Every structure is written in structure tokens, then in C-alpha cells.
Structure to design on (439 residues):
């Protein structure tokens, strides 16, 4: 996995699935009533333990934490370590946070919210007040009960169904620093009125879907930023059916079954590392796609061959521009970019500065299956074709027509003439549907 620096303690991440005191007891806690002195605390730093939250994780702290949040419209809410200095573990089912509130764990150890509900949204940030503020979470790890069921780690904004939160509520301008979300059906899910939210130095891993922008939400998605973060080991890294504007920089999408998927993808990436062993890095089975990427690394590891395309699109409309990409493959891949547009709408594709390495082969740089009129350009880049021999070329027929390869043993090759082996000339070759010809 590509690694980016965060302040999340390695011991906290390593202990996510280990037996901890916070998971030993299902005993419910009767939360003490907060004193009048606590209720009168000015906006500033509020210690949730003072409201009865249990930092050892032995008892349920939901009511205590919610009481602290309800008592203070503004401020930072501190989740301290355990008395023995170990990271704090707070067992909760679901808490509701306003966008004027910020949850903070210790900088050196972080704090863990251990979510016990298989169906609820664990942390809901949703506010009926639309005035601009910047709350969020810092040095917090949200751990879920597993990917089965309908659990959500972090929910932002208004729920169109008025179940998780009011449909007209807001979660805009939130900042999430050194956040870990792991072990949920959906790690982070967006609702209505969620825009300009920012994830910095965060890790979204081990969820069914890492980040989800579902169909049906409104007034959301503008300038949703992810920087210096890693989205890894999820079923889908980012799923966009709402047409969000994901701005991803200096980050990694590693070992998700699919990196980016959805029906209304707007994905803008710079200096991003994709790595996985099988499947698609970007997959859009329908809808519209806008991909703008520069300085990207695509690394397909593993040992088994794959007919999957690194980027596979079946869109109603597609605009793809990739400027500067390094493609590494350890086994054969059908296509780097495959586009099969619906409704006969020609895609627009520009590829610049594309390079390839590794032991495998990418049989086609681009393949537009049903729309050859699509605009495809390669400017200022190169395609590095691994050398093989004429005798090792696959059969040239209708199934492989249009493929290109390169051989190192051509004998007196001539352009567009069937290539013969036994020589010492390296030359690219092209399958015309019946024979390999020299290029």
C-alpha cells in the first residue's frame, strides 16, 4: 500500500481488530445528569468524560457524549485517553454533531469511537443552520461492527428520507484531519447540502464502500477535497452516483476491488497512486464520466492474468483527460482505457505522457468498442511495448484485430507487410484481423 503521513498512532490501527477492553462488555451505562456548572461551560474545550463518557470502552457512552454535545452549541469536544494512558475507547451507537462542533482526540494517540450498531450511522454531522462554520473531526478513529448490514461510519448533511437527519440540514465546510474510518458497510456517506468538505491525512479502509455519494441527494458535492490521504482495502474506494466534484491530491487508492465507480463520476486527481491486484481502477457501467488526472501511477500487481481494463467506461457521455501517467502491470491486461459509450455519444479522450513498465502487457492503450468516431489523442507521450518474438505472438484474428505488440526478431520488416521471425530487428507489429504486420 502506498503510505502517506498521518499522526494516527500505529498502535491504534494495529489494535482495531484485537480484543480490547472496549469490546468486552455489553453492559449499558446510566449516564449521570450533568451538573449546572457543566451546563454553564463557555464555548471552548468540553471534556466528554466530565459528562460521564467512559474512556475505557467498558460501558456505552452514547448518552453521555450526546449530552455534552447538546449542552454546547459551539466548541471543541475532547475525547481523552484512558487513565492508564492508553488511547481512549468510547462505545457508542449513534451521535449527532452540529457543524459548529469539533470532535478531537489526543494528538499523539487519537481516540477511538467503537460503533456497536449494525444498522445506524455512527457519527452524523448535520445542522439546520446554514451559516458557514468549520467543524469536523481531528485525531479520531471510527471503528465499525463489520461490513454486513447497513452501518455507516460518518454521515454528512441532510437525509433525503428524513431518517438519519432532517433532509434540509447542512454539513458544509467540515474539515477532517487524521481521521480513520474502518469496518462499516459504508465508511463515509454524503447527504443533502454537503459541499466543500475536506479530508486531510486520513485513512478510509476496510469498508464495503469507502466514500459514497448516492443517487437522490441534492445541493451537494462542490469541491469535496481529499488530500494526503489513503482509501484502501474497500469493496469500492469512491462511489459517485450524485455527480460530486471529488478533488483528490497527493493520495492513494490502493487494493480496493474497484477504485472509483458510479454513474455520475466527476473525478479530478493530481499525484494519485492507484494499486490493486485485479479489477478496474475506474469503472462506470452507465451515466456520465468526467475524469481529469495528472501525474498518476497505475500499478496492477498479482500473478494472474486479467481481461479487465484499468479504466472501463460504459457511459452516456465521457470526457477523459490524463496528462502524465505511469502504468505498471505484472500480468496481461486487456486495455488501459476501455470506452463503450451508450446512446451513440462519442467520448472525448486525450492521453498525454503515458508510459508503461512491468512484466505484463497492456494489449490496447485505448479501445472504443462501439464508437470509433470518439476523439482520441496521444500527445507528447510514449507507449512502451514489451518485446516478444514473432513465434510468441497470439493468434491474429477478429478477436485480436487492432492489437499492437513489439517483436525483437523480425527479418527484413517492411511496413504493412506480414512480419517474419528469425531476424534481429525490433519493430512494432499490428494485427489486421488475419496476420501480424510490421509497423
Amino acid at each position: 500500500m502506498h503510505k502517506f503521513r498521518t499522526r494516527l498512532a500505529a498502535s491504534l490501527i494495529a489494535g482495531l481488530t484485537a480484543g480490547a477492553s472496549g469490546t468486552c462488555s455489553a453492559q449499558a451505562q446510566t449516564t449521570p445528569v450533568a451538573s449546572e456548572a457543566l451546563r454553564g461551560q463557555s464555548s471552548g474545550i468540553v471534556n466528554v468524560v466530565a459528562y460521564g463518557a467512559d474512556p475505557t470502552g467498558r460501558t456505552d457512552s452514547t448518552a453521555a457524549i450526546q449530552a455534552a454535545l447538546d449542552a454546547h452549541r459551539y466548541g471543541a469536544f475532547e475525547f481523552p485517553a484512558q487513565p492508564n494512558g492508553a488511547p481512549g475507547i468510547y462505545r457508542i451507537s449513534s451521535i449527532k454533531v452540529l457543524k459548529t462542533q469539533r470532535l478531537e482526540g489526543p494528538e499523539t494517540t487519537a481516540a477511538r469511537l467503537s460503533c456497536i450498531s449494525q444498522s445506524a450511522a455512527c457519527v452524523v454531522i448535520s445542522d439546520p443552520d446554514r451559516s458557514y462554520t468549520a467543524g469536523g473531526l481531528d485525531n479520531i478513529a471510527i471503528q465499525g461492527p463489520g461490513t454486513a448490514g447497513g452501518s455507516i461510519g460518518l454521515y454528512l448533511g441532510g437525509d433525503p428520507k428524513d431518517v438519519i437527519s432532517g433532509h434540509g440540514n447542512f454539513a458544509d465546510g467540515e474539515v477532517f484531519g487524521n481521521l480513520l474510518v474502518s469496518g462499516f458497510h459504508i465508511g463515509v456517506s454524503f447527504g443533502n447540502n454537503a459541499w466543500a468538505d475536506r479530508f486531510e491525512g486520513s485513512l478510509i479502509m476496510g469498508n464495503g464502500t469507502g466514500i459514497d455519494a448516492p443517487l437522490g441527494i441534492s445541493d451537494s458535492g462542490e469541491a469535496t477535497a481529499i488530500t494526503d490521504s489513503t482509501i484502501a482495502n474497500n469493496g469500492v474506494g469512491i462511489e459517485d452516483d450524485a455527480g460530486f466534484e471529488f478533488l483528490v491530491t497527493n493520495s492513494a487508492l490502493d487494493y480496493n476491488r474497484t477504485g472509483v465507480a458510479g454513474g455520475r463520476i466527476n473525478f479530478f486527481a493530481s499525484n494519485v497512486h492507484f494499486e490493486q491486484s485485479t479489477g478496474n481502477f475506474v469503472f462506470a457501467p452507465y451515466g456520465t464520466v468526467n475524469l481529469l488526472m495528472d501525474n498518476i501511477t497505475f500499478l496492477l500487481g498479482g500473478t494472474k492474468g486479467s481481461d479487465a481494463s484499468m479504466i472501463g467506461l460504459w457511459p452516456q457521455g465521457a470526457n477523459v483527460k490524463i496528462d502524465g501517467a505511469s502504468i505498471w502491470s505484472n500480468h496481461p491486461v486487456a486495455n488501459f482505457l476501455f470506452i463503450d459509450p451508450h446512446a451513440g455519444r462519442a467520448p472525448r479522450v486525450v492521453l498525454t505522457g503515458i508510459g508503461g513498465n512491468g512484466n505484463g502487457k497492456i494489449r490496447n492503450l485505448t479501445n472504443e468498442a462501439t464508437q470509433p468516431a470518439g476523439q482520441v489523442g496521444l500527445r507528447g507521450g510514449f507507449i512502451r511495448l514489451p518485446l516478444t518474438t514473432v513465434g510468441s505472438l497470439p493468434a491474429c484474428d477478429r478477436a485480436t484485430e487492432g492489437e499492437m505488440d513489439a517483436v525483437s526478431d523480425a527479418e527484413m520488416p517492411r511496413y504493412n507487410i506480414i512480419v517474419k521471425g528469425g531476424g534481429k530487428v525490433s519493430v512494432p507489429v499490428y494485427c489486421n484481423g488475419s496476420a501480424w504486420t510490421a509497423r
User: Anything to note?
Assistant: The CA atoms of residues 183 and 254 lie 16 Å apart.
